[in-house]
Amino acid sequence: MTAFDLIALGDNCIDRLTGAVTADLVGGNAVNVAVQAAMLGLRTAYCGSVGPTGEADGDRVLSAVAAKGVDVSLADRRGSATSVTRLNVAPDGNRTILTEDFGACAGWVPDAARLRTLKAARHVHIGWLQDGGHARRVLARDGVSLSQDVSVNAAPEDLGVEGLAIAFASLPEDQADRAESRAADLVAQGAKGAVVTLGARGSLALIGGQTWRAEAPRISPVDTTGAGDAYIAGFLAARLNGADVPMAMAAGHTCAAACCGHPGGFPQ
pTM above the 0.85 mark? Predict the structure, then answer.
């Protein structure tokens, strides 16, 4: 039996929320996916870099993640400060990123020992990772089941999709008519499948040459921070538990809707 069902690789941060919601919370795409998947019952781990030993923000990230049942033994501590993202939450719950300081996440690359552990997982999800695509290429070469959120990543060299089982992307609601072409582009570029989330307009999946659409439940969000990450976790957890694509899309939307009911990417 492998040690983990899912390892989320990449970013973490302190989310500093202002506007309709005022809070300092732990977040980041990879962290949110790891925590949400653990809340759904998967054996999960987080692999990424935080600030130096003893730094309050870094300690807080690892403590919050571990408290949700996520293994943090793959976390690295560097000299740079833990990443901080400042967001504004509007009265309707929609959030806007104001500034991002990637701190310890910037330029971090998993070492050989961490890559060996990643290769033993049932699935690896890559969030924001500024490594020029190195981890994706190494893991894909060795047959690891991979997904990546290509809507959050760092730069063109980090955004290749060749070897991904699923490329996750997102589009604004007013661009929902582009979802099918966006998914087709990702598959044409080398992903085996693609899922495009569209906020309140639902989602579209192109997997195995077949296209599915799913509706999002109608909700009144408190805060949409991390909703896309929650969708990814719900989708992946369902698939790892044997669900078909439509069931996984429904699970993704259920998880995203629950995430919108509280500030931040997971309850804390």
Answer: yes
